[in-house]
Amino acid sequence: VLHQPYERVALLKPTRVPVRPHSVLSPDEVRRMFEALEGTPKLVVRLLYGAGLRIGEALSLCVKDVDLERRELVLHDGKGMKSRTTLLPRVLVQELASHIERERELWTRRAKAAPREVAVPMPYALDRKYPNAAYEWPWQWIFPAASTYIDPVDGVRKRSHLHESVIQKAVAVARRRIGLSKPVTPHSFRHAYATHALRSGMDPRTLQQLLGHSDLRTTLRYLHACDRSEEEVRSPLDL
User: Is residue 230 pLDDT above 60, yes or no?
Assistant: First the structure.
């Protein structure tokens, strides 16, 4: 095709990506998964389901992004590089506050022992504008990784947030532990949040804003016919 005319390119049709239905966990299955999880992965998964977060959005939360008093989470650079604010469930406020307090004690001890080794990576070259911000508490991760690394750009030792594979493996182990046959990933809890919210009567427009969807049709995919009551949808065999 090199150096060939492309007048006929308008006749080409774009490839259609097949849209497959989501495998949605029932409320009882969500509860059983919670019971099979423990530690930090359990808190992260409860946050995914309680606020409808993507796994990357939850793990990249900084201290400054969490407002416990107003129960708000500020999410930066999500899918499509969009930012939004969503609600933190009341039941997670105290649990998340205790987790943050424990992380602050660990960070304080690390900062006293090695003040220049508690840096975190800064977005959009903010480390040049605010050179000390990477060492300050508001910019620290809510779910930090256990190990550090040397940034090849500036040679500074930094700490990233918890890797997604940690949560993925914990969810896989919990699924096998309870003997659940349907596939379950961390993203399944976001699907469950959306489906259960619509079934409980949440307005689709409100849910669209909380999930960060650009198109309402994406949100309405969670309105499954099988989620309706038996009185609304009945098989002819039942009659």
Answer: no
Please provide residue 139's backbone torsions phi and psi, each rounded to the nearest 5 degrees. -90, 0
- pLDDT tens per residue, range 130-152: 889 999 999 999 999 999 999 99
Which residues are identified as catalytic?
54, 79, 187, 190, 213, 222
User: Tokens 């038996």 identify what position?
Assistant: 230
**pTM, whole model, 2 decimals?**
0.83
